[in-house]
Amino acid sequence: MSDCLEKLKGYLSDLDIAIVEEDSEEDLLIVDDQDSGVTNLILDCEDPILIVEQLIMPVPEGAGAPFFRRLLQMNATLVHGAFLLDEDGRHVFYRDTLQLENMDKNELEASIRALALALAEHGDELLEMSKQA
């Protein structure tokens, strides 16, 4: 197991965030923080960074400029990370990256809490946007 995973597991334990899956070959953890509404959050050690990634929703069929404009406007309100599209443009994700070399528990917590805050602030709107056809 990598030093990154060991460090993450210690931080997550301290933060009382549950690890639901671990892939030590890929240096990847999937975690849940039920209290903040964060589920299946991927923590991927890709030296020299940690990728923090959460699937938000599929891009609605026929989504146009207003949809993508609103996602960009939402990004302006995020404390950490950003909403983005996957390479195929079919899914919206939240993603943040942290430098592994000097990452500490507070930095990891801030990234996860920023996602929770984004979901609290924009969750209802994102849910409505996902229903658009």
Topology:
Elements: H1 3-15, E1 18-23, E2 28-33, E3 38-46, E4 49-58, H2 65-75, E5 82-85, E6 91-99, H3 105-130
Explained architecture:
- The relative contact order is 0.19.
- The chain has a six-stranded antiparallel sheet.
- The chain has helices at about 5-15, 65-75, 105-130; strands at about 20-25, 30-35, 40-45, 50-60, 80-85, 90-100.
- The chain has one domain (about 5-130): 2-Layer Sandwich (Yope Regulator, Chain: A), CATH 3.30.1460.
- The chain is α+β, with helices and mostly antiparallel strands and about 130 residues long.
- The chain contains three helices and six strands, in the order H-E-E-E-E-H-E-E-H.
Low-confidence stretches: none
Instruction: Say how many strands there are.
Output: 6
Radius of gyration: 15 Å
How much of the polypeptide forms β-strand, as a percent range?
Answer: 25-35%
Feature tags:
single chain, 133 residues, alpha+beta, Yope Regulator, Chain: A, 6-stranded antiparallel β-sheet, 3 helices
Summarize the structure.
The chain is an alpha+beta fold.
